[in-house]
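Forwarding the complex inputs:
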Amino acid sequence: MKLSRTLAVAGRVLTQLRRDHRTLAMLLLLPCLLISLLWWMFDAVDPGIFSRLGPAFLAIFPFFVMFLVTSVTTLRERTSGTLERLLAMPMGKLDLVLGYALAFGAVAVVQSLLAVGLSVGLLGLEVVGPLWLLSLVAVVDAVLGTVLGLFVSAFARTEFQAVQFIPAVVVPQLLLCGLLVPRDLLPTVLKVISDVLPLSYAVDAMLHLTRSATTTEVWLDLAVVGGFVVGGLALGAATLRRRTA
Amino acid sequence: MMNNAVSATDLHVVRSGREVLRGIDLTLARGEVTGLLGPSGCGKTTLMRTLVGVQGGVSGTVTVLDARAGAAELRSRIGYVTQAASVYDDLSVTENLTFFARILGVGPDRVAECLALVDLADQDSQLVSTLSGGQRSRVSLAVALLGTPELLILDEPTVGLDPVLREQLWASFHRLAEAGAAVLVSSHVMDEAERCDRLLLMREGRILADGTPAAIKEQAGTDDIEHAFLALVRRAA
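Prediction (whole assembly, two chains):
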């Protein structure tokens, strides 16, 4: 492992993103727009609903957007031949994956701060727990999306196939994360499935922060999500093959 | 055999059930430009990928620069240019080279040298997506030259280039060889043959002939390589 190579990859990915204004806008602004839409919609019916659901969406939107962009971007690296070229060079597999995670992680920090700032500052989302911890959970969720996107891109051969992973990987997590039905009320089998999906813990952490000032539970949830991030990075690196047919 | 950069014996490659290389023995000498000629689909790319160490499904022994093909220590010593330009379209020429230079651990002055070598110094700040096909493949070539490789493997590097530039590139391949590198260049165009120190004629996963252009023509009793190829195919049948 070599830090200079990780930084070279991260710098390169960020330069590419800077050139691609539409993707950058989608990464930074789309979660804000979607949360505003949610607020607008519920504000007319019952403002209390936004305060209940908003935190969950602060976990979900960044996760979703980062998953989509990362899986397609890394797939482009695979199909353009540059991945093969890099792996034929003195490039560590983990260095490469970490470089990607670092670049998208940096974007995730900006994205999450914007989304949290908007929700709490302008849209009146009420948070009982510490605000910085809410932001941290949002950032870790976005990084989780990045890492899962990196991982699944190994199983897609085209960008078309990569996009198909959204309904397969993201939507079940969305349904079972406690947003629609509280996790405690889920049928046993679904509860078990929900327990092994990382987004459940991210949403748990967010919901807890809006209701309580204690942080122990949040740190535990965050540790689980962090575990998935580390595991995803390792698996992502393991899917890279220097020799191919 | 200090002089050999590559030696391979009884090389077989199976790709999705099909035998693409069917028992190849070859050596590549340092200081020589070797041409790998043969029709499309004869296994040139697979052979090159095997020498670089990125091909799966290989049996037989391949020794490259005194190590097993694909060994980690070789990764900074081999330059490989794939047929499709493997560079980032959305980065400029210099940004591409600077990135790969950082991966290889070579300095920025080498970037300028390699740009000059492929005659792209004037396009250095242009995005690769705005370049012509020939210019893109030269960016890809420049990346392969960054690490001053001891073995340079080029898959059809001169396809689609104008004659003047082709001439220049062949001259630079020979300069690299004179500096001690082994250079393997593939082509499906037989008229590039005369530019090589040595030729490997390939067909259907086997080496049909191996020698200097003059020796191969003499062996086949013809006065150009295209006819020599045809004569050798007929003789082998």
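Chain A has eleven helices and no strands.
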